[in-house]
Amino acid sequence: MGLKTAAEYRASLNDGRVIYWGGEKITDVTSHPRFQVPLEVACSDYAYDDPDIRDLITYETEDGTLAHRVYQVPRTVEELHKRLALGRQMSIVGGVTGVYMALLQIKDRLAAINPQFAENIENMYRYARDNDLRAAEVITDAKGDRSKKAHEQLDPDLYVRIVERRTDGIVVRGAKLHITGAPLVHELVVMPTKSMREDEADYAVAFSIPVNTPGVKIIARSFAAAELNAFDYPASAHHSMPEGFVVFDDVFVPWDRVFLAGEWQMAGAFAASLGLWERTLGLVMAAYEAELMVGLADLVTEAQGKERDPHVQDAISELICYAEMIRMGIDHACANYETTADGMLHPNILGINVTKYYYASNFHSMVKQLHDVAGGLVITLPEEADLRHPEAGAYLRKYMAAKPDTDVEQRMRVFNLIRDMTADALGGWYLVTALQAGGGLKAQRIMMARTYNMAKARQEALRAAGAL
C-alpha cells in the first residue's frame, strides 16, 4: 500500500494480462518495444521524488497518508483549481483514472436505490487510492445497428450485458471500444454507454475488475509507431498512448465489485457523470493545445516575413479568440462551480458542455487557419537525416533561410510540430478525439438542453415582448 515508484508501477503490469497488438499476442508489456514510449508517459505520474511537482501531484488523505491528487475529492475552490492544474501535469493514464470522481459524484443517488452498490463504489475508490492504482474509463460499446436499442441488436453482445447472475457475482459479455490507456492500467471501470430502459435492464451494468481478470482481452493500437525521431516527431515521439478494444468473454465479476446490475434508471446518470469530468480534463489540454497553435502560427509568420500581412493577422486573431474562449469557458465553469450533496465541488455542468462544444465544433477550422498560415512545408519538409547530411543539409540551410538571422533548425522544428500535431501521427488522434472524446457533439447538445434554464429564458423573452 502507499505511493508506488515508477519501477513498481512497471512491475505491477507484468501480471498475465492478455494483450494483442499488430497481430501479436504480447505476454510482457513492460519489455515490449511497442510499449516503451507509452510506459514512459505513464511512469511520469509516479515521479513523487521530483520536488518541483510533488506538492501538486500528491495530497494528504483523511488517514494522514499521501496519495496521488487524482484521487482527491475537491471540497474547496482551491482543491478544484489544483485538480485542473494537475490536468496539465499528469499523463493521460492519470487523467482517465479520474473515473473515480464520476463514480463518487453519483454515489449518493445510487445509495437510494442500492446502498450496497454505493458502498462498493466507496470501497473501490479507497482500494485504488491506497494502492496507487490507475484505472481506465470503459464506457463505449460496439453498438452495432445504431437505429436499434441494446436488446434489439442482431447479436445481443453488441452492448456489454449480464449473461448470468450467481450468488457470488455476475458474468458479463461484450466489448468496449476506444479505451485510452487500457493496456497500462490496473483496473477497468465499466459503465453503461447511455440511458437504458426497463427492457434493457441486463445492459445496465457497471463494475470494476483487474485487467488480468480471466476472459478480459485487449486489442491495442496507437496513432504512432514504436520508435520515432524526436526531431521529426516532436510530440508523438514522447507522447504516444495505446487505445484498447476491450473484450469481455464471459467475465466473472464478484458482487463487491459491482456498481450496477439491472438498475436501469441509473444507467444514464453513470454516463453523464463520466462525461463531465472527462470533458473538463479534455478542456484543460485543449486550452494548452490552442495556445500552442497560436504560438506556432506566429513563429512561422515571423520566419516568412509576413507579420504585416492582413490575411495572416486575421488568421492569428481567429486562433487567439479560439484559445481565449476555451480558457474563459473553463474559468467560468470553475467560478460558477456546483456542489453535490456530500460536498464534492465540480465545474458548472452547463459551462463545461458549452465550452467543450465550442472547442470541438471549431477545432478543425482552427487547424485550417494554422495550415493556411504555415503553407505546404507542413507536409513536404525533408527529415532531420537530410539536414544532417553534408550535401543535402547544405541545400536545406541555403533554401530554408528567409532572413539573415534565420535559424533553419528552429524553423524546421516548428514545421515538424505543426505537422505532428495537426497532419500526422498525433494530429490524426487530435482530429478525431477533439470531436469524439467525452462524447460527440450530440452528447454536449443533449447536456446543454438538459441544464440550460429554458424556463427563465422564456420568461425573460415574454417580459421583453410585453406579454407578461
Q: Shape from CA axes?
A: globular
Provide the CATH topology of one domain: Butyryl-CoA Dehydrogenase, subunit A, domain 3
Which CATH architecture of one domain would you pick? Up-down Bundle
From the alpha-carbon coordinates, what is the Rg to the nearest angstrom? 24 Å
Q: What does this molecule look like?
A:
There is one protein chain. The chain is built from 18 helices and 14 strands. 43% of the residues are buried. Strands 2-1-10-11-7-6 form a six-stranded mixed β-sheet. The model has no long low-confidence stretch (mean pLDDT 94). It has a domain at 269-458: Butyryl-CoA Dehydrogenase, subunit A, domain 3, CATH 1.20.140. It is of the alpha+beta class.
Helices and strands in order:
Elements: H1 6-12, E1 19-21, E2 24-26, H2 36-43, H3 54-57, E3 58-60, E4 66-68, H4 77-89, H5 92-96, H6 99-111, H7 115-130, E5 135-138, E6 161-166, E7 169-180, E8 187-190, E9 205-210, E10 216-221, H8 236-239, E11 243-254, E12 258-261, H9 267-304, H10 310-335, E13 338-339, E14 345-346, H11 349-374, H12 377-380, H13 384-388, H14 392-399, H15 408-422, H16 425-436, H17 441-451, H18 454-464
Helix pairs in contact: 4-9, 6-7, 6-9, 9-10, 9-11, 9-15, 10-11, 11-16, 11-17, 15-16
Quick recap:
With 468 residues, this protein is an alpha+beta fold.
